[in-house]
Amino acid sequence: MATLYPPPSKRQKLAQADRAREQQELDTIPSDLGSVRVQFYDQATGQPTGPAVSVPVADANVKNLETLLNTLQGNEDDERVPYRFAYHSEKEGQTIDILRDVYHSLLEPGVKTTEDTVSLFYTPQAVFRVKAVSRCAASIAGHGEAILATSFSPVNSSTMVSGSGDNTARIWDCDTGTPQHTLKGHTSWVLAVAYSPNGAMIATGSMDNTVRFWDAKKGTALGGPLKGHSKWITNLAWEPYHVQESGRPRVASASKDSTVRVWDVVSRVIDHVLTGHKSSVTCVRWGGTGKVYTASHDKTIKIWNPKDGTLLQTLSAHAHRVNHLALSTDFALRTSYHDHTGKVPETEAEKRTAAKKKFEEAATVNNTIVERLVSASDDFTMYLWEPSTSNKPVARMLGHQKEVNHVTFSPDMAYIASAGFDNHVKLWNGRDGKFITTFRGHVGAVYQCCFSADSRMLVSSSKDTTLKIWDVRTGKLRMDLPGHRDEVFAVDWSPDGQKVGSGGKDKQIKIWRN
Amino acid sequence: MPQNEYIERWQKQHGKRLDHDERQRKRQAREGHKQSHDAQNLRGLRAKLYQQQRHKEKIQMKKRIKAQEEKNVKSAAPDEPSKTPLPQYLLDRSQETNAKALSSAIKDKRNEKAAKFAVPLPKVKGISEEEMFKVVNTGKKTHKKSWKRMITKPTFVGNDFTRRPVKYERFIRPMGLRYKKANVTQYVYSGTIAIPELAVTVQLPILSVKKNPQNPLYTQLGVLTKGTIIEVNVSELGLVTTSGKVVWGKWAQVTNTPENDGCVNAVLLV
Q1: In chain A, N or C: fewer CB atoms in 10 Å?
Q2: What would the CATH number be for the domain defined by A135-513?
Q3: pTM of the predicted model, to two decimals?
Q4: From 1.25.40.20, 3.10.20.90, 1.25.40.10, 3.80.10.10, which CATH number describes the A34-124 domain?
Q5: Would the CB atoms of B88 and A192 count as touching at under 8 Å?
Q6: Which residues of A touch B96 (CB under 8 A)?
Q7: What's the CA gap between A424 and A406, in Å, rounded?
């Protein structure tokens, strides 16, 4: 007597038929709405571009608007730029992204009617496209213990550095999938690694309370350990290239001993000790305007002036420890004068101006330089800050159901991605912190995430041993990358978008490419 | 109970007895003897109360000794908070014990032919049909032929099961003895030996009964006895296969006698 299931009841059949009918309905644009007048504005300057144009509502989708705007600007066929559009009203101060077409974003919710002139602010998207990584190009053994941190060189995707629990950091040649150098010297786990913005040096911070510097090309130590911290190093941040005094780069190191130390790399002395936090400092960021941002377990974010080591601002809104910080200009600062073309300016002065230009391009909104900050916390929320204007947060981002471990800004600053211990990655609007979508799919805590250089994809690493590539526009899983045998602690997408490097508890570095 | 601090008052007025310290020392020295005497000779409720109090004291004592021992350890190396290296963001978090199927350990185990079919409880005591079934004889026809049976053991009945018409129903599975969930323990194996410290027990929904060792008929009926192999829904454990797929159902073996205990306990099979 096997358990035979009875045939579905009439109610079940009806419900199924109902569902099938609902799914078939497509959201189409009604064709009898006539046209709408559209005026384009540049997001960076706030200036109008061209005259107001009348566009048929049925055709007013993003693709067509893009073509129209390119024509208005007189771009030739080969230099067409993809754009993203947003509606912005001065009166109510609200901003709405045009996701697919004007009808569904503005007309249908009743924000605008076909009688009004719709002002659309445009921002250019990356002209290059990063292909989704889909296969494991190399799986390199070498580390004797779990890998705790990885970072690609800002120059290109051919070198990567990883810090591990076996007390070494290693430089990998990602083109051939072979180890290049082993950086030996630390006496305990290497918790943080960071490439200098010009890609010539590597800083490592360790459990043994010291910071060390290494030559990235030769893999040799630049002097001995820098002592000063009394507890382990949690994070490192290089001074942005355009802010550096020439020939005198500096590094800020955050530590469990609740201080941040600013080191002069060349003369190997402590420039300043930033004390004021009451508990472990978890994250440090060096902004392009020359300020140092730190987050701590004492629930506050502090902003420092590294010139004289004074405290400028304290941002307190979180109710629990702050885990991570991200700057809107992180990507521009990390890559400095390197870009997707691979051309490097020749002289130092040119490099500096290129880096400065890149930062200003990234940070300029309405003709002012604005650096935004997003902080993730154990209180399950995130805050978006604009420290230059106010001590109050711009937005509070609610939605995670467990601790938020990691946040990142997309390179074009349009999105914020957050990874939480509740198995979800969430996507937020980078401008006003509005919730966009949740990427569901991981079945373990998500540890880190990283955007591709063109901001169209996101990679996340999780405790469930997989990496997943998400499509930012559709909010869907683009690619599932299994292969690691254990938790994946660290992931990084190379700044040129070619490769993804990951490492975790299974002691193997994996290089992924398309 | 003293009504006031009269001893202190007396001591303030007159001072302590000259041999106070000596008496104190002696009393303390004999403390162990007194405890031993009480422990051996008290009877009845007083013994019970005494043992309870003593038990608590001993726990405190052991804790203190342990703390003391930890304090005495001297190390030159900086203290690493855990044996296994952890990234910065996991360092100051209390790690819940995670039973994780270490994939390599499992593979080794599966490679051994013998281990392939090994289960935690290889043999169980047989259950006779008389014990398993009760003859139902209500109604004239049923009484005459006595073909209807009631199952006297706990069963698992699928979600979408509907009873057949009374006329055709041969086996009755009582509602009161149906189980939907099992307390499943997952062990971490080093080689073939389970490490009890890393075990984790979670309550998981039962999906189906795969094999009842007593009788294939009992498998069909979904009878839960000791040694039964059941399939449980492990999706909330977040297990992932090497190819990245989420593991949904996993097999487990019942380790207790559910009809005696009122719950189903099981061990996850690797």
Answers
A1: N
A2: 2.130.10.10
A3: 0.72
A4: 3.10.20.90
A5: yes
A6: none
A7: 11
